[in-house]
Each structure stands twice: as structure tokens, then as C-alpha cells.
Specification:
- The complex is a heterodimer of chains A (about 290) and B (about 325).
- The longest helix of chain A has about 30 residues.
- In chain A, strands 1-2 form a two-stranded antiparallel sheet.
- In chain A, helix 5 packs antiparallel against helix 8.
- The mean pLDDT of chain A is about 90.
- Chain A has a domain of about 200 residues.
- In chain A, strand 1 and strand 2 form a beta hairpin.
- Chain A is mainly α and about 290 residues long.
- Chain B has about 325 residues and is an all-alpha fold.
- Chain B has a single domain, classed as Orthogonal Bundle (ABC transporter involved in vitamin B12 uptake, BtuC).
- Chain B has 14 helices and two strands.
- In chain B, helix 2 crosses helix 11 and helix 3 packs antiparallel against helix 4.
- The C terminus of chain B is likely disordered.
- Classes of the chains: A mainly alpha (about 290), B mainly alpha (about 325).
- Chains A and B meet through helix 4, helix 7, helix 9 and helix 11 of A and helix 5, helix 11 and helix 13 of B.
Chain lengths: ~290, ~325
Amino acid sequence: MQELAQQVVSGLASGSIYASMALALVLIYRSMNVINFAQGEMAMFTTFIAWQLVQQGLPLWAAFTATIAVAFVGAVLLERIVIRPVERAGPLTIVIVTLGLLITFNGLAGLFWGYVIKSFPSPFPAAPINIGGVAFSSQDVGIILVSLASLGVISLFFAKTKLGLAMRAAALYPAASQVLGIRVSWMLALGWGLSAVVGAISGMMVAPVVFLDPNMMQGIVVYAFAAAVLGGVESPLGAVVGGLILGVLLNLLGTYVEFVGTDLRLAVAFAIIVAVLLIRPAGLFGRVSVARV
Amino acid sequence: MRLRADRNLAVAIVAIVIALLPFIVPSFSTFELTYVGAYAIAILGLIVLTGMNGQISLGHGAFLAVGGYVVAILAHRFGLSFWLSIPIAAIVSGIVGIGLGFVALRLEGVYLALATFSLAVATPSILKRFGDLTGGVMGIVLPPVAAPKVLAGVLTPVQWFYYVTWAFAGVLFLVTARFLGGRVGRSLRALRDNEIAAVSFGVNPHFYKTLAFGWSAAFAGIAGALIAIPTAYVSPDSYSSLLSITLLIGAVLGGIDTMWGALAGGVMIEFLPLWVQKINNAAPSVVYGVALILVMLVMPGGIAGTLLRLVQRRPPAPGDAVLRRTEPTRAVEQ
């Protein structure tokens, strides 16, 4: 029982990472109808920036804050320079451009920092936390708290601020929003900035666990895809719930089902993606859309 | 008519150059050029699927893995000659492709990209999991290639397999050209450009889309086999997601709208990393990524598409820029 509780909590910890990455994907999907395949590599790259800042002697939390600012500005610039010219092109074009970004960031990280695995300092204490007689790793509990807090801030931003409202309007009704004076194209750039911030946070949260190397986000981004699809690619709430479900599910399967083990977890994620898209394409929380042709 | 004559002449010149190259370049370059042929076959399959039919696959490395492992397992367990195992690799990979094609019928655009990308990332770990069959992390060593006795004095093993690879490539290119030029090609392109209109004209979307997937996967399976045999080794890490992405990069850089793009793409993905690697191990990725973005922004026809347009001295037709078509259903008004 105690082991099960520990496994569930550590599943929730990885799940909240998947949830954050999935939310980052959904933020862009809602406004542009594309998946940013470079999301994971952007998160990895910003995590390396945080590592570099810590190496330069910056305190951990200061480095975190600086990195978040860099991620936001960098992603907005990226959208303006690289994505804007293809904003109106078909999905295939944007997918290929984001793949270009994926491989560029992966290469740049290798170029600047090399492929040797680096350890990333954890902001959380090493001592376990005792809740109800069961010892949980502070790392896990910390990851869950930070991720949920950042998700909460994002949803408050969308629900309560005028800018958040404008972004939602631009995503849903671009033409009408334009008429009302919303700069639709800039809202897309802001969306990129925000999702890069969410990605950067999850990168910095997961780096102490998986260690830092240019390929660290590759598996995580597939779990995030699965989480987003499971929850419904249109739905931010779905992304979060999907991420948490997936984290616990994969952890339990990996621990208790010998057939799955560690090697087939990615295959399970692939199977979930295919199964959800075939059986219930809208996911758990998405709306079924009807297109007029 | 003149265009067709020009094209035949170009094909003949390319074929002669390919036939003579092993006698001109050093043995190691012949070895590298063998890979170019195999990559060209895989990219040709991707051009059929993505360029002609509009279904994006970021997971073609998985089919190369199927082809490579089928040949390796058959050679390792049963000592089967590659003349038999390459067709088997094509069939197995084609069947897997048709299976995935059925799934793809229900997934559109971005979703298909997402599912196939996940497959690409999952491939190495699936190969590791079923170690009894695949040899796990250690992989499988294949027997070395030997030229048949009749040719033993004439061709080195490297030259022999170069000709085998390019013979496969030649046949597959001709078959593809034959089909793409006729009813099949028209149906695939019609489904890509406007599925509803195509269906109203009697094109069966399920048949042709599944066909494109199986066709493309079978080609990738053959390519995987043709890469595994001269390498004489298969292992899970040779089939990372980077391989799948590299193939798509080859197709896009080479030119995804024309069969020539497969040739140009094969040359690019074999030699570009070798040249750029001299600067830094990570440099090829950066060059690939930047080149990919630049091609999409300024010359969506890729190398071959752009060259063809220059040679034929005609203005870009709407059909040229498959990758720049705007989506009529989702226009962001400026």
C-alpha cells in the first residue's frame, strides 16, 4: 500500500510535467491549429540557459526567473521571424517549419553544451516529506506544486485579464477580433511566448530528475502529445487532466506490469494516441467539431 | 513532346553517370553512394505519400527498421540470401504500412504528423524490448556481402552491392514514374488537393490513401534492407527519431513535388552531414534545421523543384508549391 501511494505520487509528479508540456502544446494549437513539434526542444534549450546562468554564479531562483524572461522574449521573436511568414500556409508547412526548429535547437544545444549528461541543481530539499506515515520524495511533491501553481496562474491570466480575453477571442474568431481592434497576429506571438514559459518551467522542473542533455525532452514531448490528445487538443483543462492520468498510468504500468517495463512506455503512449484519435478524436474534454464544406 | 524528350535524355544521362561512377571514384565513395541509392528509394516513397498524396509521415524510420530487421533476422537465423529477404522485407514493411494507413484514414494533417512522430520516437525502445527476436541493445551482425562467383574478378563486393542497390532504385523509380504519370498519380494528387472534389469524381479515397501508405512503407522497407546489408549491422539506436526526421528533411530539401527530389534528397542527407561534421558533431543538425526553415520560407519546391523550374523557364504554377498552399478553411485575416 505504501509503495502504491509512493508510485502514484511519483506518477503525479511526472504527470504534472507532461501536463505542463501538454498545456504548452494546447496553447499554440488553440490559436493556430498546429502542433509545435519544437516545444520540447525549446524547453530543453531554455533549461540549458538556466544551467549556464547557475554556472555563472547566479542563485537558483534568480536563474529561473531570468530564464523565464528569456524564454518568453525568445519565443515571441521566433514566432515573429520564423512562423509569421507561414502563418497562413497549410498545416504541413508549419509542421515542417517547427521540425526545422526542433532539429536546430537540438543541434545548437549540442554545439554550445555538448552531449555529455549534466546534472541540474534541484530547488527542492533532498530530505523526504512525511505525509500520513508515508515518505514521499520532496522532489516529486515540489514538482507537482510548482507545476500546478504555474498552470493556475496561466488559467487566471486567461480568465481574468483583458489581454487573456483578447487572446482567447483571437484564437476563436480571428476575423471578428480583428474588426474589434485586436492585433490577432500579435496574439499568436504572445501565445508562443506563454507556451515557451510553461515549457521552460517544466524543463527546469524535470531536469534534476532526468538530467540535462540535448535529447532529454524527446520522450517527454511524446508523453505530452499523448496527454494532450487524451484530454482533447482543444482543451487546456483536458491537457492537465490527461497529463496527470498518463503520468500515473505509465508509472503503474511500468512498475507492476512486467510486459511493459520501462521499454514499452513510449509504445503505450503511441497506442494511447492512436486509440484516442480513432475512438474519440475529441478526447475527454474536447468538443466534437463539425466542419462545413 | 519536347519536354518528354528532354526528360528522357536527362534520365539517360543520370543513369549512365550512376553506372560509371564506381570506376571513377574511390572505393569508399562507392560505399557512400550505395547509401545514396537506398536513401533515394526511401525518400521516393515519402514523396509519393507526402508530396503526391499530402499525408505527412514523421515516422518512416520505423519502416526502415522493419526492413533492416527482417533482412537481419532472416540472414542471422535462417541464412537466407538477400535476393529472397529483400522482397520479404518489402512485403512485411508494406503490410505494416497498410495497417498504419488504415489508422491514417481517420487522422488528418497535424494528427497524423503527431501519431507518426510518436511512432518514430518509440521505435528504438520497442526494438530493445523484444530482444529475443531483435538481439536487444546489441543488435544483429549480418554476414558480409560477396559478389557472385562469375563477377568475383570483375567487381569488388562494394561495387557489386552498389550496382544491386542502384538496380533496385532504377526499377522502383521507373515503376513509380509509370504509376504517377497515370490514373493512380492523378487520383493521389486529386485527393491531396481537394478530397471532396476528388470523391465526387469517383476517386475512392480509402483505397488510394491506404495504397499510398503501403507503397511508401514498402519502399522504405527495401531502403532499410539495402542500408542494413552493406552496413552489416542493425541496432535499435540506428533507427532513432532523427532518422525519420532526416528522411523528411531529405524529401523537403530535395523537392517534395518531383521524383528528382528523391535523388537530390538522397545526395543531401548522405553527404551534407559528412561535410558539415568536420566543423562540429552537432553542426549537421543546425545546418539541416536552418536549411529546412529557409527552404520552406523561400523555395518550397526544394532543390529539384527550383532547378526544374529554371530549366523549363516557366513561371511557378499553382501546383508547384504544394507546401505553400493556403488552407481555404482556416484563413487568418490580416
